[in-house]
Structures are given as C-alpha cells and as structure tokens.
Amino acid sequence: MKRLSFVEVVERLNKFWAKQGCTTVMPLDTEVGAGTFHPATFFKSLGNEKWRTAYIQPSRRPTDGRYADNPLRMQYYYQYQVLVKPSPREIKNIYLDSLKSLGIDLDLHEIRFVEDDWESPTLGAQGLGWEVWLDSLEITQFTYFQQIGGIELDMVSCEITYGIERLCMFIQNKNNVFDLEWQNGLKYGDLHKRHEIEHSKYNFDESNIDMHLKMFEFFEKEASALLSKKLVYPAYSFVLKASHAFNLLDARGAIGQSERARYIARIRSLAKRCAELYLSAAQGAATTS
Amino acid sequence: MKTATKDFLLEINVETLPVLYPRPWVETLQKELIKELEAQRIGYGGTYSACNKNLLICYIKGVSLHQEEISREVLGPPKHVAFDKEGNLTKQACGFAKTQGVKIEDLKIKKTAKGEYIYVEKKEKARPTKDILRDVVPEIIKNVHFPKTMRWDSSGFRFARPVESLLLLLGKDNLRIKAGNVPQKKVSGVTASVYLKKIQKASLIDPDERKDAIKKLILGKLGFLKADPQVDEALLEEVNFMVNSPQIFVGQFDKRFLRLPKDVLIASMSKYQRVFPVLQKGHITNNFIAIIEKGKRDMAGIRKNYENILEARLKDSLFFFDEDTKKPFKENAEQLKSLIFQKKLGNMSEKIERLKGLSRFICEKLALDEGLKSNIQRAAELSKLDLITLMVGEFPSLQGVMGGEYALKSGESKEVSQAIKEHYLPQGMDDKLPGSLESSILAISDRIDNVVGFLGTGVDISGSFDPFGIRRNTQGLIQIIEKKALRLRIDEVIQKSIELYNDKLTVDRGQLKDKIVDYIKERIEYLIGDVRPIELKAAILEIKYFDIVDIFNRIKIFSSISDKKFFSEAAKIVERTNNILKAARKGEIGKVDKNLFEETLEHELWKAYLNMRPKMQDLVNNEKYEEATREYAKAFYKILHDFFDHVMVNTEKVSLRLNRLAMMDTINRLYTERVADLAKLPQIIVK
Lengths: 289, 687
Hints:
A: Methane Monooxygenase Hydroxylase, Chain G, domain 1; 8 helices; B: alpha+beta; 5 domains; about 50% helix
C-alpha cells in the first residue's frame, strides 16, 4: 500500500467521486461541526432534485479537544463528505471501491459495518446506517438520511463521511495523527499541533462565556429576522453561527443539563424553518419556471 | 387425497443488520408463514430458519402444491317446497340448483332440527400454493416487526436495512413477488433443498452453530493462555452477528493500563471495540481476543491496528482517571448543585437529599441496624458524584461503577463503595441484581425516586414509548425486592417518596400513588409469567395490602394448590356468593343483623363465620394461605350448599333479603379481601 500523504488522499477521493458524477464544491467558510451542515448537503438533500456532491470540510467539535495529547481525537479535523441523491443500489460497493482507489486491500484487512443511526439534533437530521470500521478503526459514517430539518425526505440520500485523518493513519501506518505526512514531508502536527493545543485551551478554559451567551442571542434573533425576510442563505449562516456559539459554551461547561436541551431545541427550530423556507422557494421556482 | 409436495425456501439478502434484529425477526417470520399456510389449508412438513447479519432464511419442507379441498354444505329450500305432491322437483328447487351452479342430480336431502331440507355440497376451489405464496409472502415480510425501519429508494418499501435481493423457491420454481423495487434473485435448475444445502455448506448460517463455533475458538485461546474459561455471552451474541465466518487472534496492550479499574478496561474492550477481555483468576490481563471475518488476512497488520486503537482509547481513559482522582471524590459535591436531575425535578443535590430520606425510611421499616443505615446514608451522599467526572462523561455506561471505584480510592469503606457501584443494577432484563443489602436499598430508593418524579410531573408511558424508562425502573425495583425478600409496604414507600418531593410534583398525589401501584402490579404480572390458571394473577393482584414479597409468595402457593380439591371448593364458595351478590345494588348491603334470622341454617352459617373470622385473620397474618384456603373450604363449602338448597336468599321480604345478602357478602369478603379474589377464576367445577 503506497503511503499516500494527506493531500494525496484528498486528491484521490476528489478524483474518484468526480468520476461518480459528484460535483466538487468548496468547503464552507463558517465554523461547522460536520460536512452535513454545508448547504450542499443540508439544503440539497431536501426535495426531489437529483444531486451528487463531494467535498472536504474542516469540522469543529469543541468538546473533542484533548490539547493534542490524544493520538486520535481533536477539536478540529477534516471530514470528506459525499452525498449521493438518490442513493443507487450499488452505493456500498462504490464506497468500497473508493477505499481500493486509496490502495487499501480489503482482503488483507477487515471492513466491518457496525450499526449506527447518525443524527444531528440541532439540524433535525436523522438517518439509519453504519459506522464503517477498518480493523476496528472507525473511518467512515455511512448514513441513509430519513429526515432533514425535521422534514421526512421523499428522495433518500446516502451520506458518506470519511474521517480523513483516520484514513490516513491507516494508509500511512501511523499511530498518532500529528505524525501524519501532510505533503512533501511536512507533518500534520507541523501545521496543526499548536492550533490544536491553543484551541483546546480556549474551548475549555479561556473562552468568554458572557460574550458567547450574548452572541447566541444575537445570532438567533438575526436568523429569525432574516427568515421573515425570506433570505434563507443568510438566515442559515446565522443558524450555523448560533450552533457554533452553543458548542463553545458547551465545551466551556457553561450550560447545565436541562439548558442544553433547550438550546438545541432553539437551534433546531431555526434549522427547520430554513429547511421549510428553502423547500417552499424551490417548489415556488419549480411551478413558475 | 395425498397431494404432491415440494420444499419451500425464502431467502432475503440484506445489508448488515443491527445485531439484535435477525434472530427474532426470522423466528417471527417462520411463525407467521406457518400460520398463513394453516389458514390457507396448505399442508407442510418440517420447518427450519437461519440467519446472519446479511441473510434471513426460512425453509419449509413438504409443502403441498395445492390447498386442501374442502366442501361446504349450502342449504336450499325445505323438502316440502322442493318437491311437489308427485315427488318431482319444483321450480324453487331447480332455481336453487341453478344459482349454486350445480346440476339437479347433485341436489341432496339433509335432515336438520327444523326438518328436511335440500342442499348441495360445494367444493371450495383449491388454489395452487405458489399463487397463494406470491400473494401472502410480501405482506408477511412487510408486517413482521423491526424496532426501526428505513427507506432507501423511491418505492416506499421499508425494511431494517436496504434489501439486496429476495428469492422464493418452491421446488425448482422461482416465485416472483412484488416487494418495493427489491431485485429478485433467479436460480435455475436447483431445488429449494439443494439451494439450502449449498448455502449451508458455504458458511455457518445457523446462528446457534455459528455462536458455538465462535465460543469454541475463544475457549481454545483462553485455554492456551491459561486464562479463566469465561466468555461474555452478550458480547458473544453480538459478535455472532458481526461476522459470518469467524477467525480469531489474540492481541495485547501495554501493562501500564492495568492500573485502570477492571470495569473501565472491560468496557473499553467489549463495548467499544467488541473484543473479549482475558482474565486470570478474575484479574484482567493485558491480553484480548478478537474475532474477525475470515479471509486471506494480514494478521500481523490487523492485530497491530487493533492494539493501537485499543491503546488510544485506554490512553484517554487513563487521562480521565488521573484527572478525576487528582482531588478527593467528595469535593465534587458542590458541582452537583448545577447538575440537573430532570427538568422540573431540581438538581442532583436535591435528589441526594431525597435518597437519604427515602432510604432512611426504608431502613426504619425493615428495622435495620445503625451500621447498615449509616453505610447507606454515606453511599447515598456520594452516589451521584461520578456523574461529573471525565470518565463518566466519556463512558456514560460506567456511571455507578466509577462512583464505586473513586469512592474506594478516596478511602470510603468497601460496603459504601459497593452500594454506589451497584445502585444502578439491574441495567437490563437479564442483568444481575445488586449484591448487598445496602446496594439493594439504595437502588430501590433511586428507582422509586425516579418513578415518582417522572410520573409526578406528568410524564407517562404510551404504548411502547417509554423514554424515561419508567417500566425498566419499576421492573428492577420489583426484582430487587423479591430477590432480597424485603418485607415492605410498597404503597407506604411510594407515599414517603411523594412527601419528600415536597412541592415539585404537579400531579394529584392520591392519583399518583394509585397509578404507581398499578404500574407495579402490571410489571409483577409480566414478571410472574405463566401461571395455571392464568386468572390467578388477577385474583391475587386485587389484594389491597401491598407487599411485593407477599404477592410472589401467594402466587407460588396458589400455583401449587390450584389443582387441589379444597382449592376448588373455596373458589366455588367465592363464586356462588359472588353470583348471588350480582343482583344487589351498590350500597344496598349493610351489616348482618342476627335478629332478622328466621331459619336455623342462617344461625348455623353465621356461627360458622364467627368461628372462622379470627382463625382466618390469624392464618393470613402468618401468611399460611394454603391452610387458610383449606379451612375456609372446610368451614363453608358444605354448609353453604345446604343453605342455598334450603334457604331463598332473594326472598320477597326486603329486610330479610338484604340481611341474607349481607351475610353472603361477609363470607365472600372474608376470603377475597385477604387472600385472593377467586371470583376472577373461570367457572369452577368441583370434582
């Protein structure tokens, strides 16, 4: 198995999925917790329009920070996100082929599909599917979406989300993410270690609670106002900002148990309105065109 | 008439199913198929089912190719209308033959209770089995239940996971059915039985055979490692549905991780990586056993990957453990004030106060010694502190367990630590119960506090939707009380718990208590399971005084005497008095006035009652239910029958009637209120 660098792995995935008819979109420039939050997945999975996309998405999960001490877990990492809508019958085999395209030999190593029904409570997203294990390392989340923004989907999409770092650790035979080769001998840690340590410190110890509490309120209000003005993309961008503010507050320990559920419900209700507005506009456009 | 038969096979190929889905589904599928065959009058022989994570198979031998033909009798006009005076068939008779589509020669005469009628024998057309199967199989597949189903294409067809293909074979015939857009496999020139043999040869599709094979592999390695020959059965069953053909290897992790508590090590291995821990004389070793899918594998590479991942996880755990144990355990107490127990029910600090109060109450009721009481109080005080530790934050399933570990490490006594550790048990239907008396009482207190709190603020169960686990909480507390034989009036404990909640509860307190008692009864009924006769359960659960141990005791005793003569006699007494009381209106019946007696038998019956009453009370107080039943039968059976034969209870004179009814009521309640309401049993025949 050729020791592909991080950048090479991404290039190969881009190439593979482009061949499958996926549109490469650029990563979102707002902080998000997963590739699912990108409009290319969140909005495009709604309605009955066919769509295939693949893209890399930096993802932030403040509670997962470990001050760069943990070899596998970080608060900032890269997901490779694929959405295929509608999901073709052979999608599982296509996915396995994508792994082969990275040089992974599925006979020498064991692939296992382990039940995991992924959901994002803030997005009102729900699906059934699996974690994919490669020699017991989880490398992918494989999900058939049933609901987005609380809306039951007519056309079911298949979302395939790779954890690129983990995939690379496997391919490069490394134990620690910071030792991964990024490109041309440069290590992942050279680019990310200090970033990881400082952000862990920020998330757990230093973030300004008061500021983020206020920001959450501002973002929520703005999102709501924009929804009334029927500006779905700007509204959604503020929903994402609110969601990230919540994640930071959560990592900081500023939100109690019952409060947590309420915050999530507030974000979800905004996400739901965005989804509904998007759909009604899409249907409106369909009837007028 | 013997019809031709063929073997039938239904094969469903599906994407990897959740581990607990295949077995129950395929068993139900088989049951439903058989039920349908019988309903359709199709004969069959032996049945077989098998499953793995990708395959659901149902096989039925010797299925008749046609339905059994049956004939029905259709009655026509009576004979005197069907034949005229000369004995010829009338217009009505011919008309009848015509509408039934038969020739007049086929008309027959039948003698009925109402006289002679003409009739025809109509044969129900026997449909070919393959047509029937094509109709019913898709319906059956759709209706067999999965906890969760999904859609994956535009057909709207739902299943647990995407179905790759379907195959129905009847002999060599491929039966095509419509199930969403699921592709149908087509095999030619192969019979169902040959096809089955082929797949059986390819891998162990029988789940029990496969499980045994895996277990054997593991025990083999354990023997080789000179380790304890114990295999986690729950994990084994999961792994049974994660690989189709097993292969085994042994891995290791760094010994420094053995510093971690045993439960953390076991959870990291079994729960998160699905590998088997290896113990020697009960102590964890730094080995593990993994089962993977057979193949031409790079075993060294795979082992190394497993080891790296396990170590990464253990590294996390060690980090948490060291952070958590940096300060004394009890210092976490302050933080509990900001940890919410449940919306509307306050924080964890408040819950702890209630637990202390409730467990103190229970200890007093059980007259336990001071040492035990103070252990439980201490355990209650510390019982929720682990909820704010990093370890439990990462591994929520370790709540309680970590509490116990951290308490022990902090210098608490073994008894206190054990109580903390075990107070969440049992964690499932087949999980073990708390071991010590301290853990049991703390566990019961916690569960009652949960149930009272949830139901007391308007949460409820609807159908199978029980998000707060009210059923699970209730069931566990019953099991603990029964196992430890804790003689408690559960209604009193519930009452105390309601009081401890003060003003937090929003539901009416009287109704709340009754509702909880009802849930407990419902769970007891479920836990008791099969009993003969089945109505015994209801008969016993009617009793007002609520001691759970006593209830189980009664069930046991009554099950053993339910076929005895004196039991039937006692039941008969209850039944007859009950029946006669049905005529009485509510509130009509007052007290018995012996001055109104007119017959000798009335005096005698009353004397028998007065004699029996203290005896009954005494026997019931000593829980001698068998003897109570025997004495009751002896006291009343014969005399009551004489009474009914010679005395008219429902006489015209109102005062007399009411007095006699009052006596019937008193005799009835003497038994039904204290022992069992045997009127709930089906009609009794005394042999």
